[in-house]
Amino acid sequence: MSAQSTDVPPAKIVYSRYDSAQEPTQLETIRSLISSDLSEPYSIYVYRYFLYQWGNLCYMASDGDQIIGVVVSKLEEHRGGVMRGYIAMLAVKEQYRSQGIATKLVRMAIDAMIVGDADEVALETEITNTAAIKLYERLGFLRSKRLHRYYLNGSSAFRLLLPLKSQGIHDCNHDEDECGHEHEHEHDHEHDHGHGRECGGHDHEHGHSHSH
Amino acid sequence: MVQTSGNGLGDGIFLWHSIVNVANPAKGLARLILRDDDIPAMHPTPPLPTDSFRDITAEFFEASEKLNVGQLVKDPYFTLLQAVGALEARIMDPKMDSGMLEAEYESFDALQPRLPEEVVGIMDQLLSHEMAWHMGSALSQTLFTCLYIDRLLSSSPKTLKETTFASSAEVEADTKERQLLENVLRPYCLALVKCCYCVNQQIMMEHIYEEEDFVTQTYNVSLLDSVEPNEVLNLLDDALVWLETSKDLYTEGIFNALKYRISHRRALLHDLSRETEEWHTGAVPEWDTSLELLGKVEITHKLGIPVSEAFSTSVQRKLASQVPPRPIVELSFEDAISSLKKLCVEGKDMLKVLKYQGSTNLVNYFLSFMARRPSPSPYIRSLLQSLFFKDMKILGVMSVKQVLFDDVRELCNPVELLLDPRNELVEAPHDPRFDIVKRTNWFVERAGRSYLDLFRNICQNRSRLRRNLCHAILDWDSLQVESEEIDSELRELTKEDAQVTPNGPSYSFPLSSWVYLYKLRQMEWIILLGFELEVYQPHEFAGMYWYLQHYVRTKIGHIERIRGFAALNPKLSSKQKKKKVIPAVEQQQKALSQLTFYLLEASAIQELSGAMINAYTALARLDLLKKPPQPYSSDSLRYDLRMKPFFTIGCPEVVPFDIFETLVDNPETQTLELLEIASESITQARKDFDQLSKLDANTARVVLCEDAFRTNSREMLRSCIGLGVAVAVLTKALKSPGGATNETLDVEIDKARYHPSFPVPSIKNKKQTPQKKR
DSSP code of B326? Predict the structure, then answer.
């Protein structure tokens, strides 16, 4: 492979699914890609939590042997029995942005979720992150709610949802999640004063890094 | 030795084979051991019985050898939340390990002489930190980073005497510089801490979202919990006395700067330390004094010299050792002042509610108070909740029943017998009044809860308000069904005569009518907040305004029904009306006037949303609103998602998607015609809003919040006018040879200049590409 100048768009981006056998070499790269967009790095457990359980929903974009973009997701039954895909992290190296790499990665993750019988896909993004919001809205995501001071730095988030299937609209659960749960949070003084808001101090789901 | 029980290490460390990630695992463990012995002074941990410990280091290494890198051994109950909170074994990494911070607080000399200008500077830095905390940042990133505060609190003082800047066994050098620190800065710091104590106590008392709105965490540091506010107030008085006697040491400017700061702190602590009961019993606030002094603090700010070395994140090393070091939150002095001013203004303003002016005025006050922009701070939102409801009393003096019945009366004017307090005196079980009380008491119990929740919800941040309302309408929906049953029973007991209508006999259903109106209002608020919070995107506007209109129309029908029945009570001859039964007539007149007001307001919103529907539909037709593609989803699926909060509501029902689509798109009507209709609706809406804005505060039930009502009316009118302009520009373009297309027009949604729930499209003709240049 020839050395790429950072200014010249690379000829070929290769997309691949995360391979857990490669973890020792890849995890650190993935981590540093995502951390560069965060005010506080996620602990290793957060990555392991996703990669070990849903490595099949994680995709990488590489230029030669260099990973330049990544999407990390999960898919599991949500409250109310809905299969909910969740895009936890998305990052593309700065000089590779605006080339549709992030969109491609997200689409690969969504496609894999559809194979996994997802009913919907969810994520959170900072309300000022217009690039990310646009990206998802162009894929059909809808803002379902606003989350006040969701991130550690005090900024708010939108929860975005992409409905994939008709979900029978009968009983309970008009809210996409928290149903009957959120009131328990009022004065959680025992609260472990550690974890980051980014990782869902209240929503038990986890923040979303920037992308283009 | 690795602890097997204990002090807050994330569970994860023993669940996951992640130790391989550390360059030198043994070193990491050694560090753990070290840190166990090294529990800092601020965490007075009681000694643990030693027999509960077992050294598992060897077993741990052996077990972890059996795992592959990245392999996860996970308890099914180990959630992502815990993963996030888990301590990563990245010990010794300065980015992740706050224990790596140099303990600057140990070497800090709090008695190092400071210029008086520096003391002023420190006080102002402290004020910024205090307000950053008020606005939601953690103490560990704000006030607790101040090394003066750390010095005062780190010995866990129980009395003011124990709070000192001196580190142990220091010789007292009685210099003027030192006196300034001891006699002015120290009281200021202590009063500030006490203020925080009061704020924290207040916030913990009411419903506010921890970490989202506010962080109550104090990391086991006592905020002078056991010191009485009065002692601290006295200390401030002493500080003022000392300042007077030392006047000649300082320039006039500095002297005043110090005096204003101490005096301001005194006034602030005075009000913050009030118990709710004191407000209820007529305590005289000092918010105005605070405000005035704050103005003087602001003016003298420029005299101060900030002291950056008095603040350090290293304090976090003993506060929150499980999280990576987090930066100091920097709030500018200007922002701190303006948010504190706002707090004082609002703290004073809310005392108005204590003068009860009827339930509708009270509800309207809450609604307008919480719609303030920027939103009232968590402390203020908490205080308002306490003022409103505490110890089972509303505003300190009324029962829930009183206010709830007032609300029903103000709206529905039911027959007197229904809510007559004298009913409760009836002891004979065969008397219908006995049964009436049984049922109305049930209603107080059941609806009272929902009613109190409503007030509490209104006091949440706007995002939460919308989310909570989505839950609340379900509650009100079932409350409505239950109340209808009670109403049917009650009408037998009150021997209500049926009204003959073309659709058969009709009854008043006062309680469930009241419930239904509140339910409809909350459904309406959900939509209005959807616009305000930018949850809805422009391509959804037409549809969401359609629903707003739909709910408002339903409300109009319902109000008219209530009015029909309200006009019947009391049933009196005109002769009787002139005689003794004046209170009942007055009651009726009040209810009727309120209903008329509601009708006018609803009509205005109905017209404006009608105009919005047509204008945004026209824009969509002309392809002037970008509608994103949907490779995975469909309009119908997205509709289901959008309407989710409303699907289970019995009445009014969600309209099936295909019908909704046709109603909003209105394909039968020409685009120009749509715009014409829009323009007519705007004219009507303007008339209505005009009329509304001219109403006196009594009629509009805004005696507690007239200014906010006027502002709101003005913003509504502005939206009408803005939309009128947009429709005119669009009509003109459509009629012109170039047409209304992306080539000829620029369309942007203007949120800033209009009512937050009625953003207006700003439509501009594109300038012809200039031919001359170049």
Answer: -
